[in-house]
């Protein structure tokens, strides 16, 4: 049985309250894992982990599974649609059920924001946040920082523009909290109805023109599934005002790194050709997600 302190140290609920040293240690360990040639190591042999996704996912779910399997863990995959959640079972009862069966850690993605903290206080295995509502997506931000660090060497003094649907973005929040700890400047650019006023003390809202004059330009997906009706009037209009079009991308400084957490609405927030361009780190971000999640799962269970 883990103590409360061990449980807290092994869990990863968000980056807002995680220390800079702790983040740095995860990034360094990810670099270690990336440098390993062996695809499979038995660091977590005999450990069982449940990936519990109450909301859809491709990248996060599969890169956690890849990371866990590469470390030799036994992996249980839970998806809400194929479970007793469909019969009305609660998130708490579902997690307690898997805990009762003997898992050593749980990876969890939830639709609502703000319930993970309480859930983790009632569960006695480490929980890893794989995205909760618009609150945090810590492993996405860790892989984002890792990608920026690989490209620029240091995060100190970097200018990072996050453009698009800030209001609904857990990625924007986790990146904001983490980047500030490393001395990077985060700027936001968003349509008026997609801003997050509570974040204004931490990041300036700037014009598209200014946003594009940055070391990193991070485009966000327009999260239609979280919108009230009528928030996005037209995809064409959005692309014209806030999209990273081929024309805008051609005017970026050559050193600017283009990022996007994906999934991408191609030709809405970012043009097709820009996704695949040399300046784009979108697919490398996905590759970097595996060593980051190896470091996070090792920290949770070793
Ligand atoms: N970036 C991200 O969280 O992607 P998924 O929703 O596919 O996991």
From TrEMBL:
Reaction equations catalysed: carbamoyl phosphate + L-aspartate = N-carbamoyl-L-aspartate + phosphate + H(+)
Pathway recorded for this protein: Pyrimidine metabolism; UMP biosynthesis via de novo pathway; (S)-dihydroorotate from bicarbonate: step 2/3
GO cellular component: cytosol
Keyword Metal-binding attached: no
SUPFAM superfamilies: Aspartate/ornithine carbamoyltransferase
Annotated GO MF terms: amino acid binding; aspartate carbamoyltransferase activity
Keyword annotations of the record: Pyrimidine biosynthesis, Transferase
GO biological process: 'de novo' pyrimidine nucleobase biosynthetic process; 'de novo' UMP biosynthetic process; amino acid metabolic process
Binding site for carbamoyl phosphate: 59-60, 109, 137, 140, 262-263
Domain Aspartate/ornithine carbamoyltransferase Asp/Orn-binding, residue spans: 156-298
Superkingdom field: Bacteria
Record InterPro entries: Asp/Orn_carbamoyltranf_P-bd, Asp/Orn_carbamoylTrfase, Asp/Orn_carbamoylTrfase_sf, Asp_carbamoyltransf, Asp_carbamoyltransf_Asp/Orn-bd
Residues at which L-aspartate binds: 87, 170, 221
Assigned EC number: 2.1.3.2
Aspartate/ornithine carbamoyltransferase carbamoyl-P binding domain: residues covered: 10-149
Function: Catalyzes the condensation of carbamoyl phosphate and aspartate to form carbamoyl aspartate and inorganic phosphate, the committed step in the de novo pyrimidine nucleotide biosynthesis pathway.
Summary of subunit composition and partner proteins: Heterododecamer (2C3:3R2) of six catalytic PyrB chains organized as two trimers (C3), and six regulatory PyrI chains organized as three dimers (R2).
Classification via PANTHER family: ASPARTATE CARBAMOYLTRANSFERASE, ORNITHINE CARBAMOYLTRANSFERASE, MITOCHONDRIAL
Entry's family note: Belongs to the aspartate/ornithine carbamoyltransferase superfamily. ATCase family.
Protein name, UniProt field: Aspartate carbamoyltransferase
Lineage of the organism: Bacteria, Bacillati, Bacillota, Bacilli, Bacillales
Name of the gene this protein is made from: pyrB
């Amino acid at each position: 049985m883990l103590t409360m302190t061990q449980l807290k140290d092994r869990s990863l609920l968000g980056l807002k309250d995680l220390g800079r040293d702790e983040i740095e240690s995860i990034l360094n360990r990810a670099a270690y894992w990336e440098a390993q040639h062996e695809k499979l190591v038995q660091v977590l042999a005999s450990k069982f982990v449940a990936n519990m996704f109450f909301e859809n996912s491709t990248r996060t779910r599969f890169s956690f599974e890849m990371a866990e399997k590469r470390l030799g863990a036994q992996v249980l995959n839970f998806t809400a649609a194929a479970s007793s959640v469909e019969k009305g079972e609660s998130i708490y009862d579902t997690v307690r059920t898997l805990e009762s069966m003997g898992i050593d850690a749980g990876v969890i993605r939830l639709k609502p924001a703000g319930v993970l903290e309480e859930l983790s206080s009632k569960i006695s295995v480490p929980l890893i946040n794989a995205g909760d509502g618009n609150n945090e997506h810590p492993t996405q931000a860790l892989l984002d920082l890792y990608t920026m660090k690989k490209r620029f060497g240091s995060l100190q003094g970097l200018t990072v523009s996050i453009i698009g649907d800030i209001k609904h973005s857990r990625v924007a929040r986790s990146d904001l909290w983490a980047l500030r700890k490393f001395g990077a400047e985060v700027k936001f650019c968003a349509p008026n109805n997609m801003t997050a006023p509570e974040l204004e003390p931490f990041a300036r809202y700037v014009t598209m023109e200014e946003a594009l004059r940055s070391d990193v330009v991070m485009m966000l997906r327009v999260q239609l599934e979280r919108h009230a009706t009528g928030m996005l009037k037209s995809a064409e209009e959005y692309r014209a005002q806030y999209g990273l079009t081929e024309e805008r991308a051609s005017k970026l400084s050559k050193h600017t790194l283009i990022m996007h957490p994906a999934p991408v609405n191609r030709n809405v927030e970012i043009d097709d050709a820009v996704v695949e361009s040399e300046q784009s780190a979108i697919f490398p971000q996905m590759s970097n997600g595996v060593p980051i999640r190896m470091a996070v799962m090792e920290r949770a269970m070793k």
